[in-house]
Write a structure and sequence with these properties.
single chain; alpha/beta; five-stranded mixed sheet; three-stranded antiparallel sheet; 25 helices; 8 strands; 53% helix; Znf_BED; ZnF_BED_domain_contain; zinc; metal-binding; HATC_C_dom
């Protein structure tokens, strides 16, 4: 029996014929309905709420049910949309698999954060559909950028995955109307044909046609592989060999059969000794802590990993005392480098450090790099000049290095590089070239200005009425037909002289900002500068696509054979969900 007397007198025990009360039966005093009673008034309270809501009374405080609690904290439809859009952007920007929306832990985190214990994650189909929409919207935005520019440079490379699948990556580079360097991925697509020159050329041409920029493409940057060089010859674009590949290839050639090989071979054995044994690696960490050094593993050099030889040398030099102690205590067959070998490695480090600096300098995609190639190579040639203090093995390395680099430099697109250097206000004095080459460069720029002028002159209309005959006197007064050409020549010379007279800016300043401020003063030269300065010096930005592609899961593929997520990651970088999904507040 409840404390209120069967819900405040709304129910009474059934009276038996003999006058006693039946404690197992109760009767509703309102509708005379009879109920079984088992010492609980829950069913009686339900009857009051259902049949007599006006007569129902509160039975006191009770714990809310799960459904009632969820109904109080349910998130709105707009908030749910924002959560879904944020999940889509998170998956696109951080290379998460689509199946993550089936993760119970993620669901519980969102439930706890939102207070909605009934929230369920969107389905995989919803996420894939939103990814398709996001990809289409972002692709349209990138296409609109390409429509607004006159010239576009491409970089491309082929890559083979760990699953032995072939992929083609292509990036576009251009300088927009605000003189800002723009770079983004066009595609990372799977290819099934062999990488013959004709197939490679067709792939690049298909990408250009797909994005409708074939007539705007100026240069195609690739590595120096024979099939890529041959493919570039088949295309109507200027070829720009990757200068980082050229430089690293020169380093490799210079180290072959050099006096450094023996010391480098011992370095590789030492690194392998600590790489392949967790116990040895732990001993190295203890020695590093004892000497007050930063805890760091040794690095093995890999022929295809740029600057890895230099990094291997640096880490062995920094940890030479700890390595000597460990190898001595272990009485290992792997011996530590001698003082003479360490001295040789120190000299090699001094030779390779400028190469690392130049490689990283030319590998950027957010700043002008093409115009820095010739000054950077000139810097390397000066460093590699023989000195009286150089030992014989260093002199031999320098000779092989400069000879090989000079040959590769001459086989690159020197004409394009020279013009780009002249149009960069940091290097327009062309100190990296001889006087004869400087004159040839300015003559080439003069010809480009003439071509630019001819291209913008209106063509004569054949439907025009014939002009009236001029008298001999008027012909004499107007002068010869060549006078217009001479005036144009003078105007172009004046334009060039005005640019040459501008003071050279500091090497740390941005050439694009200089052109932004002086575009009006050099209106004829500005389009040419925008065209030549937009070409990257290397294909490093394009190769970074493959490290992203390797992290992507197969089920994040977008329509066709294109790894849409990889270009999409480039496109959405730095944007939030509100910017990418502006609809729905």
């Amino acid at each position: 029996m409840d404390e209120g007397g069967l819900l405040g007198g709304k129910f009474l025990f059934k009276k038996l014929p003999d006058g006693l009360l039946d404690k197992t039966r109760v009767i509703c005093t309102i509708c005379k309905a009879e109920f079984k009673y088992h010492r609980s008034s829950s069913s009686l309270a339900y009857h009051l709420r259902a049949k007599h809501p006006t007569e129902s009374t509160s039975t006191g405080p009770r714990q809310s049910t799960l459904q009632e609690y969820g109904a109080c904290g349910r998130i709105t439809k707009n908030v749910r949309e924002k959560v879904t859009n944020s999940l889509v952007v998170w998956i696109a920007k951080n290379c998460r698999p689509v199946s993550i929306v089936e993760d119970d832990g993620l669901r519980e985190v969102i439930r706890a954060a939102s207070g909605d214990v009934c929230y369920n994650l969107p389905s995989r189909g919803t996420i894939v559909s939103r990814l398709h929409t996001l990809y289409g919207d972002q692709r349209a935005q990138q296409s609109s950028k390409l429509v607004q520019v006159r010239n576009v440079a491409l970089t491309g490379d082929h890559w083979t995955s760990v699953n032995n699948d072939n992929y083609l990556g292509v990036m576009a580079h251009f300088i927009d109307n605000d003189w800002t360097m723009q770079s983004f991925a066009l595609t990372v697509s799977k290819t099934e044909e062999r990488h013959y020159a004709e197939a490679c050329a067709d792939h690049f041409l298909n990408v250009a046609n797909e994005w409708k920029i074939k007539d705007k493409v100026t240069t195609l940057g690739t590595d120096s592989a024979r099939n890529m060089v041959a493919a570039a010859r088949l295309l109507p674009f200027e070829h720009m060999p990757c200068m980082a590949h050229i430089l690293q290839r020169t380093v490799t050639v210079s180290l072959n059969d050099s006096a450094f090989e023996r010391a480098l071979a011992k370095c590789r054995k030492i690194v392998g000794h600590f790489k392949h044994s967790p116990a040895n690696a732990q001993e190295l960490k203890a020695q590093q802590a004892a000497h007050g050094h930063q805890t760091e593993p040794l690095v093995q050099d890999v022929p295809t990993r740029w600057n890895s030889t230099l990094e291997m040398i640096k880490r062995i030099q920094r940890n030479k005392f700890g390595l000597t102690t460990i190898l001595t205590q272990q009485n290992s067959k792997v011996t530590m480098l001698t003082d003479q070998e360490l001295d040789r490695l120190q000299k090699l480090e001094e030779l390779l450090e400028p190469c690392r600096y130049v490689t990283e300098l030319l590998g950027g995609e957010r700043y002008v790099s093409c115009s820095m190639v010739l000054p950077a190579l000139c810097h390397l040639f000066r460093i590699m000049e023989p000195s009286d203090d150089d030992p014989v093995y260093v002199l031999r390395f320098k000779k092989i290095f400069t000879t090989d680099l000079a040959q590769r430099r001459d086989s690159s697109n020197l004409t394009w590089l020279k013009i780009a250097t002249a149009l960069d206000p940091r290097f327009k004095d062309l100190k990296c070239l001889s006087k004869d080459e400087r004159r040839e460069v300015w003559a080439s720029v003069h010809d480009l200005l003439m071509s630019e002028t001819d291209a913008h002159q209106p063509s004569a209309q054949t439907t025009e009425e014939p002009s009236p005959k001029k008298s001999k006197m008027s012909i004499c007064l107007l002068g010869s037909p060549d006078s217009d050409t001479e005036e144009e020549e003078d105007a172009i010379d004046c334009c060039l002289n005005l640019y040459k007279a501008e003071p050279k800016i500091d090497i740390g300043e941005c050439p694009l900002q200089w052109w932004l401020k002086r575009e009006g003063a050099h209106a004829r030269l500005a389009p040419i500068a925008r065209k030549y300065l937009s070409t990257p010096a290397t294909t490093v930005p394009c190769e970074r696509l493959f490290s992203l592609s390797a992290r992507y899961r197969p089920y994040t593929l977008l329509p066709g054979r294109c790894i849409g997520g990889c270009p999409l990651l480039h496109w959405v970088n730095g944007l939030n969900a509100e910017e990418l999904f502006p609809y729905g507040d």
